[in-house]
Specification:
By secondary structure, the chain is an alpha/beta fold. It is built from seven helices and ten strands.
């Protein structure tokens, strides 16, 4: 594993002086707002802004092709009280059969960073999945098993809650439902307030995918973004060999959102690192 070359860094100092941070350098975060967590996102993209090849190579790891990017993911998870994920991300990884037929648990893999999380947060790792309609079978995914190493929660709408509640009576009674909004519509701001007030979540890591990230961005809920730029270009169209109809477009980070020139989200460039030809950026939203 190579060390990160720090080109500049205007971020906060680290909460703990821990040797494990030496590879990356300082990493600290502001305190959380009173009404919700401080929310930071993590993505990897190509030089032309694509975040997934789709098809057989749909994972972010297929874009990054970097051990350091995978390690940075663990470092960011170590600084979070919980990880926020769209259900689409879980489904894609499960369809790829990684690392098991019933899909992954999104957890800290590096033992030293798992220990760092224990010292920083003193809580069990948490995955919080977001689904408006609650159209999933919990038993299809290892992430919701009682013996999974990460606590699983679900943010959903009242309709989604009705769909999921019968599954919580037996083998999945340990899965917590967080219900906000009305009918089949989510209220993400209310959900973030609930996490802050009832679970004490102060720092929340949003790992997407693009649909969830875009909705969070549009709701004004993303405070920071860690962005790895992989030194490849692939184009937005899926090759005809994988998509004979030529209709699939590879997503960008917020591909479903539409901001005008005046509404476009603006950022300040907080830090920049490099490892070989990979760039590791950190941006903070300008309010």
């Amino acid at each position: 594993m190579r060390e990160f070359q720090i080109l500049f860094d205007h971020g906060e100092h680290s909460e703990l002086l821990d040797p494990v941070l030496a590879r990356y350098g300082r990493l600290g975060f502001p305190g959380a707002p009173e009404q919700r967590p401080w929310i930071f996102a993590n993505f990897v993209q190509t030089l032309d802004g694509v975040v997934s090849f789709l098809g057989r190579d749909a994972s972010g790891g297929d874009i990054s092709q970097s051990d350091e990017d995978r390690w940075l993911m663990d470092l960011l998870r170590a600084h979070a009280d919980a990880v926020l994920l769209g259900l689409g991300t879980l489904r894609v990884e499960t369809e790829l059969g990684r690392p098991r037929p019933r899909g992954p648990v999104f957890r800290i893999m590096d033992p030293t960073l798992r220990n760092l999380h224990a010292r920083l947060r003193n809580t069990r790792e948490r995955n919080i999945y977001v689904t408006a309609r609650g159209d999933l079978q919990l038993s299809d995914y290892y992430a919701f098993d009682a013996d999974a190493p990460v606590e699983a929660m679900i943010i959903t709408s009242p309709m989604g809650g009705e769909n999921l509640r019968p599954q919580l009576e037996d083998a999945h009674s340990h899965v917590k439902l967080i219900i906000t909004g009305s009918d089949s519509q989510l209220d993400l701001q209310a959900a973030m307030h609930w996490l802050r007030k009832n679970l004490g979540v102060q720092h929340l890591l949003c790992e997407g995918g693009p649909r969830l990230y875009g909705a969070m961005l549009a709701a004004g809920l993303i405070d920071e973004q860690f962005l790895t730029v992989s030194p490849i270009e692939c184009g937005q169209h899926v090759p005809l060999s994988d998509d004979p109809d030529g209709k699939l477009l590879r997503p960008t980070i917020a591909f479903e959102q539409a901001f005008s020139k005046h509404d476009a989200v603006r950022w300040t460039w907080l830090s920049c690192r490099r490892v070989g030809d990979h760039q590791f950026h950190r941006f903070r939203r300008l309010r």
